[in-house]
Specification:
The protein has 342 residues and is α/β, with parallel strands linked by helices. It has 12 helices and 18 strands. The chain binds nicotinamide-adenine-dinucleotide and zinc ion. Homotetramer.
Length: 342
């Protein structure tokens, strides 16, 4: 089958032929229709220090996808051939304390599809049936293909009650802009988002941000004054991984504020603990998606009118994957979809 492979330890990916994955008794085989490019795939493309330590070579990568089930292992219940599915990319062990308690997102032994094992940038993907998630007919293939990052945004945004709250989001990448739409959908009073990229702040505006702030040109404090916010933000969603953004967030939180951290900062990033202690801030780290509560919430929000369509900005046939990666690398994109269906 065709797949986007890392054939050698170095930058880039190659569209190559590789063997079709083997189906186990508890697995489903998915014929991939559409995939999306994640920031993680960009790290893999660039072959940065993280990718060099993490990605086995040769291997095909990718973990944002939608497809249909074409084969089912003999032990699998609850799925049938032809079901349209996406899938949870964290494959959990099932036997650690958290897995056994149903807190699968806290599994200490999780393995990543397209990171630690073969991925979805391929004609066929095999995953445990447990990880497959059936997509209702009223959700498009495009949206189904981005359930993984949509799930990151959902898990983070729904970590704290947003009803009537003033929300600060740092980082208007695809996940940050989806979090804007979610926060508005569930009833935040105001959603202010920061970035240094005007294209992405434009997307955030389309997704419903109350104010967008390019922190290279304007201070967040100024915008807060303008909005008449005297006390500070109630909830912060850190979605940039940039230390200075997190620092500003801590400074601008109200006392008793709640902060969810999704963005991955550089190792040993220091923070001003006085902001946390004297303001009584609550800080929560977010990894992946809750299995499968986040997935049900995503469907429910789409079915109750959440509009994510502006975040999907580009489509390419998989043969043009290099153009797709180039547009992601330029920073002038939301989600980029690669079509495998020809
Ligand atoms: P992204 O890199 O596309 O977005 C980050 C954004 O932050 C960019 O638009 C960038 O311009 C912006 N930025 C840079 N400097 C800034 C500053 N000073 N202030 C505000 N914004 C600034 O990433 P993404 O795919 O949207 O993901 C968001 C973050 O979440 C990344 O750090 C990613 O590594 C992380 N992530 C974590 C998990 C998890 O499970 N914890 C999962 C997926 C992604
Ligand atoms: Zn586990």
């Amino acid at each position: 089958m065709k797949a986007l492979c890392k054939l050698e330890a170095g930058p880039g990916l190659t569209l190559a032929r590789t063997r079709r994955p083997v189906l186990g008794h508890n697995d489903v085989m998915i014929r991939i229709r559409k995939t999306a490019i994640c920031g993680t795939d960009i790290h893999i493309w660039n072959w940065d220090a993280w990718a060099q330590r993490t990605i086995p070579v040769p291997m095909h990568v990718g973990h944002e996808y939608v497809g249909e089930i074409v084969e089912i292992g003999q032990e699998v219940r609850g799925f049938k051939i032809g079901d349209r599915v996406s899938g949870e990319g964290h494959i959990t062990c099932g036997f650690c304390r958290n897995c056994r308690a149903g807190r699968r997102h806290l599994c200490r032994n999780s393995v990543g599809v397209g990171v630690n094992r073969e991925g979805a940038f391929a004609e066929y993907l095999v995953i445990p049936a447990f990880n497959a998630f059936r997509i209702p007919d009223d959700v498009s293939d495009d949206l189904a293909a981005i359930f993984d990052p949509f799930g990151n945004a959902t898990h983070t945004a729904l970590s704290f009650d947003l009803v009537g709250e003033d929300v600060l989001i740092t980082g208007a990448g695809p996940i940050g802009v989806m979090a804007v739409a979610i926060a508005r959908h569930v009833g935040a009073r105001s959603v202010v988002i920061t970035d240094i990229n005007d294209y992405r702040l434009g997307l955030a505006k389309q997704m419903g941000a109350t104010r967008t702030v390019n922190v290279e040109r304007q201070s967040l404090k100024e915008v807060m004054d303008d909005l008449g916010m005297q006390e500070g933000f109630d909830v912060g969603l850190e979605m940039s991984g940039v230390p200075s953004a997190f620092k500003t967030m801590l400074e601008r939180m109200n006392h008793g504020g709640k902060v969810a951290l999704l963005g991955i900062p550089p190792e040993n990033t220091a923070i001003d603990w006085n902001q946390v202690i004297f303001k009584g801030l609550e800080i929560k780290g977010i990894y992946g998606r809750e299995m499968f509560e986040t997935w049900y919430k995503m469907v429910a929000m789409l079915q109750s009118g959440l509009d994510l369509s502006p975040v999907i900005t580009h489509h390419f046939p998989v043969a043009d994957f290099e153009a797709g990666f180039a547009v992601m690398l330029s920073g002038e994109s939301g989600k980029v979809i690669l079509d495998w269906s020809d």
